[in-house]
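Anyone? Bumping this.
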Amino acid sequence: MTARSRWPVRVVALSYLALLIVVPVGSVFYRAFAHGFVAAWVAITTPDALHALWLTLVVALIAVPLNTVFGVGVALILARHRFRGAWLLDALIDIPLAVSPVVVGLALVLAYGQTGWFGRPLAAAGITVIYAVPGIVMASAVVSLPYVVRSVLPVLLEIGTDQEEAAATLGAGPAAVFSRVTLPSIRRGLAYGVTLTTARVLGEFGAVVVVSGNITGKTQTMTLFISNSVENLNSTAAYAGAVLLALLALFVLAVMSAEKKERGPRWRSRSDRSQSDSEPHLLLTG
Amino acid sequence: MSNFLGSRARVLPSSAVGLLVALFATCAATLPAGAAGGNVALVAYSTPKPAFAALISAFAKTSSGTGVSFSQSYGPSGTQATDVASGLPADVVNFSLSSDMDKVVKAGLVSPSWDSGPTKGMVTDSIVSFVVRKGNPKHITSWADLVKSGVKVITPNPFSSGSAKWNLMAAYGAQLAQGKSQTAATSYLSDLFKHVVAQPSSASNALQTFLSGQGDVLLDYEDDALYAQRQGEPISIVTPPQTILIENPIAVTTKAADPAAAKAFVAFLLTPAGQKIWGQQGYRPVLASVAKQFSFPKPEKLFTIESLGGWTKVNGSFFDPETGKVAKIEAGLGVSTSSG
Amino acid sequence: MPRRIRRMAARLAGPGLAVTYLSLLVLLPLAAVLSSAFSSGPGAFWQAVSQPEAVAALRLTLLCSLAVAAVNSVLGLVIAWMLVRDDFPGIKVVGALIDLPFALPTIVAGLTLLSLYGPNSPFGVNVAGTPAGILLALAFVTLPFAVRSVQPVLAELDRETEEAAATLGASPAGVVRRVVLPSIAPALLAGAGLAFARAVGEFGSVVLISGNLPFHTEVASSWIYSLSQSGDLSAAAAVSVVLVLIALFVLVGIGLVRRRFGVAESV
């Protein structure tokens, strides 16, 4: 880039970023503490707020491992097995990307709500999904479903099967091959996928607002707490909650960029199936 | 690509997990120690949240309220009633209007005799007020002012919100109270809808929409308007010359996990002490003795829903999603909020 | 024989479990949406998706998503260009910032934009309740798609070709037009498509700043939400079907573009 063309590009790029991202996010911090740190602290440590934070973390602690196991499993299946319908499975993984979170919530209500498809058998079994924690976990799991698969699959395809086969030849069982050979090599891709999944689960709103019933102290997550605080004109609580989630997001971001650097060169290399999904992990977030 | 944390890269993922677990533990540790005295799941319409916060903490100081914990859900009255009927757990339900209570009665979750008490099942009263920008720059003082050219009105969606139904019946009844015919009153509603720019799902949502700068007039519960004023929002409240008396029902459900605690709470809400707190929160107390202690504005003409035929009849003739007058007006304007 | 069956069972167990998980979470619920959308016949479906407010919401959603995809493609390219070709103190932080909209919860994003460009704006810029507010929110959430799609392609772009073209007398604009654009076009298109698909379904960041004014600033997901709040689940499902079809169509299109032009060739 010539010196002459550099400045216009900088000005345009940086001012767009400033107006769209930096200044708005900064202003949330400012507003949260507009009435002082104490007011913000009080607003975010009420029993309702603490429960919302706790629930958000509980949901993450259930949904993220579920999607991690599923994601690694599916990535292994798609990378290591040839079977009819593999392409279909591959395509289905991406469906949550095409679906609005509100529709995800609505779909869960129509399937698992009391008047939904499985409402009666579930009620007979004494299981409540909608307006309860299972519904929130499911909604969060749906919207964050593709991330681990899309972060791990390209790595698996790229590393190939040589090492795994060698280990198997040397007498290692499938479990040992997975834990000693496969897992270490996909570790960073996996960590990246898990990070993205976590970010998405912590921040989900549209799908959760439809299924949760928004019960304070029971089914109100942090994002619902924020939107409720906005509705109840409690701006300090809303902004303080937003700051809390924003800090978590910044932390996630730090992990992401650290991961990216560590894994950088490998990510760019080519392999047959990953090429149609170049950096798909980045493009999935919703 | 970028990494602004340099060499700490390796430590980060594990420290991320560590942080989450630590946060989790902190939250779990600071949560109230659980339901020693039972739990009451309260499901209510959108606006009484701040009032319940005050009432619950007052209840906790009474002998029957000690140790009782609460979970609460607030939302559009109609939506909340439908949700309770279809499984949202509720021990105490507080709706905007009695016909939402009827939905829950029909689902067998509230006794049909819920309205037999001394207050006929009602816990609070209010009226429909106009909320305008501070200083009333558009000089809105009467219902006729709402349909002047250039006036933008916000009222919630009558197919989810109870407040919206009260607002529309206030508008309709106000025409009758001014001596107009039913036909003229219906055509006033039709004119009013031409000025409605937004129909948010609930009264709370509508207030927030108004405060975010939309519209010139918000039709709202008086108590909600007073709450906004207490919060320092730049609004003025106009009491229309003719308006409707709002009556909000409450009941304990038949499925209450801890019926004793739920009943004790509802009983507390109806004591003079409880009613006084409601009054301080902007609601008109249903106990005459307590109501005397407050001086709420007196509209020239205050009418009840009974004078318009009662909710059962009004719901059919105005709010039936297919044949109701409101649905027809909205369909005619192409703004239907219920696709029937 | 039993051994063969055991082996087959073992081979099928993995895919079987995966498909079950996927079915419970995604396929069955979406099938329930489809069935609910047509539960009162195709006439009711058509009525729900063709009523004026639904049409207005879908139209607004499509127009805003298209506009945002276009704007962010251009500005995303400029930003990616800077990140790849420029160097100044702090550029790494700028690069990391691009991903912030990914990590930030959408409701926080909405609140963020409302606090700055809403009625209490310190700049006196109030776009709350206008289509501009929607564009702002959508631009925020879709920016990373636009930047991150073209950035790796730009990074791998052969600079020698550009220099050769410049040496042969091509103007900087000519170099961009003749050399750079053709190589990044598929990636640019893919990024725009992803941004569009994301924008079509967006809810959390839009809901606070748009004001949800029917016929003016009500987007499709808000309309679906409003229908479901009014208890009209089958109409909500009908509009959902349309929305999902639009997004799926775009995603399939992106896949085709990628395969056809081999986006990864330059990656």
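Late reply, but here is one note on the structure posted above: The first helix of chain B runs from residue 11 to 30.
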